[in-house]
Amino acid sequence: MAQQDDVFKKIVSHAKEYGFVFPSSEIYDGLSAVYDYGQNGVELKNNIKRYWWDAMTLLHENIVGIDSAIFMHPTIWKASGHVDAFNDPLIDNRDSKKRYRADVLIEEQIAKIDDKIAKEVAKAAKRFGDSFDEAQFRATNARVLEHQAHRDALHQRFSDAMNANNLDELRQIIIDEEIVCPISGTKNWTEVRQFNLMFKTEMGSTADGSMTVYLRPETAQGIFVNYLNVQKTGRMRIPFGIAQIGKAFRNEIVARQFIFRMREFEQMEMQFFVRPGEELRWFNQWKEWRLKWHKALGLGNEKYRYHDHEKLAHYANAATDIEFRMPFGFKEVEGIHSRTNFDLSQHEKYSGKKIQYFDPELNESYVPYVIETSIGVDRMFLSVLCSSYEEEQLPGGDTRVVLHLPAPLAPVKCAVLPLVRKDGLPEKAREIVDELKFDFATHYEEKDAIGKRYRRQDAIGTPFCITVDHQTLEDNTVTLRERDSMEQTRVNIADLHALIHDRVSLASLLRKLR
User: Fold this and answer.
1) Which CATH number belongs to the domain containing residue 231 in this structure?
2) pLDDT tens, position by position, 152-178
3) Of the residues 355, 385, 415, which one is the last residue of a structural domain?
4) Within a 10 A sphere around the Cβ of 212, how many other Cβ atoms?
């Protein structure tokens, strides 16, 4: 775990050094859990959003997009349940004065037991080699069985407490498991309390005429209150979906792990409207589609897993997370939820407006059921960054830091590098840039030795470097260097566009989803 923490610290440092992510307001000593995206970070982030948007709206004829306002009528949040039930169970350590989410402390304790089991299995696999039978070992080894029994009992107790919203029991679990504060190392805990996560502000020019409004804690409600507008103006027939990318805000008390949990973040959400009774079939379908979208990036299929919710939200009848293996463990990057017809029914009730859908095939009106896919842009960004970072040992003892970013997501697609700053090479390199820049994010760089320039491009994840040398002036060929393999091939300038396009276009990703 310590080694993984060191790797994560290096990734955070790398993100700042190479213009991906900066602490917000840094010259004023920063603002906790708020970050700015730098020149390379914003390009990577935009490419992730474009990949998601195109996968939704181009590959599905029955999904369209909207962009709803951040400010919405406050009754919307009463109807959705956020005013009364959007809470986190928090606990304080009296010695360190630090505050934690009680449920996260217990989840981390369960993860520690899982790690103990995994270590026992790994040791046995190493000892027995090819003859190792993992299933039999898990079913018969005394230490594994002891750990598993402890884990199952804790998991059941935790699940029961969460479903019953039993704050006293959550605290008792923390006490019984002897969970200590990571800062003070003590078990001097307060009671568990609920804390509402919504930011409030005032809308209006005078105190008497102002109205309390909220910064939206999710983007989904903007879709729900507009669903009938979209359906009618777009002549949409169920099943159909509405996609949206936008900022959301949560007053996270326990914000940590870099950009994984922030107070201002961005979501990519799609609400898919279906007939009542067909929601679980569509739920399972969207689980498969969304995992396929993630795996198409080639970050490693073994890094993903489903996690079914133990405690369902008040609006859901099924919920699954897609988790990704970060340096600090498996964490949620996307949620797929069957939200039933709760949201639309609540808005119909609180607004007094009929928002039912008339189904011409059934010749009846009803409130549709909804399948939601919700993915955090920032968490997706972090998963891509973490899985791409490598300190690669090279022949001869050298080391290079390289980001193996999926080529279509890379902030810079190619860099054009004149070998020297004379003899007409910079001018020729500029000609190539001027040809490629209309289709690809292209860098021009002439400072330092060519090797150093390669390393800088490796560090920001540029898939291709194009070196212009004296031979270029003779036969119109350049050296094309590939980032991951570092292989260099001589190619004609006229062929560059096609060679690069085949690797870096988003279409190459989208075709994997057909």
Assistant:
1) 3.30.930.10
2) 999 999 988 887 778 999 999 999 999
3) 385
4) 10
